[in-house]
Amino acid sequence: MFITVDTSITIQAPAELAWDYACNPDHWTASNPEEHFGLTFDTPDNQPAEGARFHQRESVAGVYSDLFGRFHHMDRPHLAVWSGTATYRKLGGLIKARIPEWGVLKLEPGEGGVRLSHNVYLDFPNSAWGRFLAWQCERATVARRYSIIPTRNWCISSGCLHPRSESR
């Protein structure tokens, strides 16, 4: 069962600043603190790079997982392509599922700034457990789409991402 999760926001900032902000492990997890608990890159400066491996602790739709992945392509500040495997656990790890995942992080010029998009692709097994996880993921994605995903333009100032004032 294949699921895609597509999110994007517009940021009023130069592309390099938006890229550096988005790729900072602290900001990455802060973008969705209900689900992301930690991100580390296996690089000396803890920043993403082509060929770098990463580990993200997360809880998707209430199911804990460890995502281990690698960046296959990096074109700063325009494009990053990654893949990995998330191990989802239920009942203290008694039930596990390993889910292949891929992602494309893109930054493109847009009206009023740059458009940052992150498209994630998940391939759930066609089993009862896989269908249950896919169902939970789809429900959480729909809920997020209407409650968490920003719908207005954002800007970066003083090192923080915040909604752009309507008066600008």
Protein traits:
51% strand, 3 helices, single chain, 168 residues, nine-stranded mixed β-sheet, alpha+beta, 9 strands, 21% helix
Q: What features would you describe in this structure?
A:
The chain is α+β, with helices and mostly antiparallel strands and 168 residues long. The chain is 21% helix and 51% strand. It has helices spanning 15-23, 25-30, 128-147; strands at residues 2-12, 36-41, 53-60, 63-75, 79-90, 95-110, 113-123, 154-157, 160-163. The longest helix is centred in the last third of the chain and has 20 residues, at 128-147. It starts with a strand and ends in a 5-residue tail after the last strand.
Strand order of the largest sheet: 2-3-4-5-6-7-1-8-9
The shape, in one word, is: globular
Q: Report, as a whole number of angstroms, the end-to-end distance.
A: 44 Å
**SSE ordering:** EHHEEEEEEHEE
Number of strands: 9
Task: Write down the Rg.
Answer: 16 Å
Sheet with most strands: 9 strands, mixed
The percent range for strand residues is over 45%
> Mean of residue pLDDT?
80
